[in-house]
Structures
1.
Amino acid sequence: MSFSSRVKNKLWLGRKHLPIPGWLESIAKDPRGWLESFPAYRSLIGLNPQEPALKPLKNVLEKLLDYAGVVPGLIVNCIQTIHGVSSDVNGSSSAEELRKRADPYLNAAASNKEKGLYKRLAIAHNETMNVPELSRWMTENTGYAASSGASWIVEKTNETVQQMRQAIENARDAAIEAAEQAGRSVETAKNKFESLLNQIREFVVPENARGLAAVAPVAAPTATFLQTMTTAPVVAVVDAQSQFFINAMLAQTFVEGSSFIVPATSKVATAAVTKHYAVGGAIAARSSCASIISANASSVPFVTSVTGTSGATWAFLLPYLPWMVLAALIIIVAVELSEEEEVKTINASFLYGAGYKTSAKPDVVFAGITHNGNEGFIEEVRQLALEMIDKRGEYDSLVFFGAGSDRRPEAFVDATEVKTNPDLRPVTKEERLQAEFQKHSESFVQ
């Protein structure tokens, strides 16, 4: 279902305690126009293109407008998660109980699809965006943040609060009118709604607002040897990227004592990304967000809906949605670009392979190349990999290098899962190729 089909009378799923503000509908209707005018995007795209640490991110940002069509789906994913978080927080579970709900989903064995996504996420993190180097640069150059979302977030939070206030007042007036028409006392209905109205408090930013220190992500581990991985690494690397970008975009917004906003909002963005790729992790991210909100309930503006259900989480998280969507979109575009990593024509004359098993010397093979071109090279790797597995059994890791006539590496292929995932992808990017060759070179020394 689309965003518009879920919104009825400016209410999510037609529910009175889940108002959808006009600015959110505008983003969904014109995502490209929103991106072009969104200060956070304009600030990032305006960073110095000559700075080496920024070039990878600039390449990703320049492609964002081509993926604007993804935005409405990300909005739906975020709102679904916020709705779920709100329901979780409204329940009777403690913050610790909510946190533990994530464990079964994080510890579930990763599917081949999740393993494949993790590999692409690791490339996006370490190479396509080079987040570790980008983080170091931003930590050293604190003046990069050109836009603060503080006033906007406060304004939109309070708009949502006022929408809920109006809904309560309308319900109060209707209840009073119904009581009068039935000849009943109006005091009971009036007092009930007045009590709800008195509990509403607006969200304010203290005068001593100051930016938080930038987070500094480390390199995402390569997935080459993660044969027994769970869903947790997928969630962890998306969450690290989400936290980094949300913090970078809103560095001047968060205030002392509100640092929980970064991990809370990043969990919503993480859920949006995993939902986009239809992999596990969304429920774990949602439960983690609910745990964070529950543990910091005193910092969330209290809002009670017309039904008496707390709308605090909904009113609190919704204004951050533009930044959550932008962070999720940056990650998705980086992943897609990692898939499009430049692959040069492979001119290999020789093929080296190494199969690794725990507590055993590697099995090493060497063969001449008879097929030409990239597809022919991949077919040679596939056939040789299957032959090794048939003869020696499954390997913890099975990798191949193609080398030219000068014995220099031309391409690297991880064929560990060739039997279950025969869609092998060569790596030809020089930096990563050299790193992988350095890692495995001793195996080929006879």
2.
Amino acid sequence: MAASAVMSVIALAGVATGSAHVLIPVMALHMLMLANGWVRLLRLPSPRGTTAALAGASVLVLIGGFSSRETHVSLLPAAVACALLLEFAHQLGRGDGRRRLVDSISSSVLGISVITSGACFLLLDHAAGVAASLVVVVAVLLSVGADRLRYTRLRLPGAAVAAILLGAAGGYGAWALTAPAGYQDSGMLAPLAGALAALASFSLRSALCALPAITGFRARWAAGSACVLSSGVLAYGLAWVAMGGLAPLLSAG
């Protein structure tokens, strides 16, 4: 899927710099693309309100992620709580009789969850955190190459295995090349994180590409952005384990 490849390259360029001044606009772009096309992709009711709620959630988690990065105090959970309250306020204010309420709430909360996952990249300002981000983004980018295998004799299972192998290899290589001294002992975790990121991205693309609305321009870019943003929590998890817990992750500069 071309949109996933392009958004992965943009994310790779952003996380490689390790600079908040570059990473924040990159993540904001991904979140904006998701918010702009999520309603069309899933064909949700109350399109304007849902899009506005997702855009507002993006702003909130960006502020929470950036504040956590600068203050080394975990403020992202508070930002997520505010984003969920914003979504429920949108549902209460709907004037269409709240048709398809369950679909609307569940899909919107899923979108907020994906956006929040992307905000996890903002928390990783330590050198080991940057390396962890590179591991998962490289894995997501390489997994795109396995998409075409779904239409060969390998079919979906073979393509999934190929994505896992590509992600594991890419994750190991990215960690070996970028991890700072003292963290090489965690190198065996990088292939696992890469494999999980590749599999998650591949599975999400496979599910979203099966939707009828995927032919739309905004829907395609929303799906491509979601495949990248969803890997942020895996980068955070890898950095968490490599650095020995939450305290050094928030206190390291």
3.
Amino acid sequence: MKKIFLFISALLICVSCFSFNTKALTIPKSDVYKEGIYRINASGKYYATISLFSKDKMASVVVIDSQNRVRMYKIFFPDVINDSLNIGYIESTDTIIVIGPGELAINYYTQES
């Protein structure tokens, strides 16, 4: 009985000494975005593609990094079929600005996808 008590006590001490800090990664929501400024509120680095969702209206997109530098700018025209932009990685400090009456579909994914 004494050996079991010592074993359990040693086990509890070891478990309490080695705490693990886990953080769940959340992928930003892939959705259709209207005109506005969107701050990426997710941890980690993700990849994204942008395409025009509305078929009769144009829209522009601007991607700004954490140091307020324009990484990408593109105008999507409704008469261009299947036009998309692979913007590469997006970090939690980046900002995406959608300009114009059209709507843009932004699809986020991880590299493993």
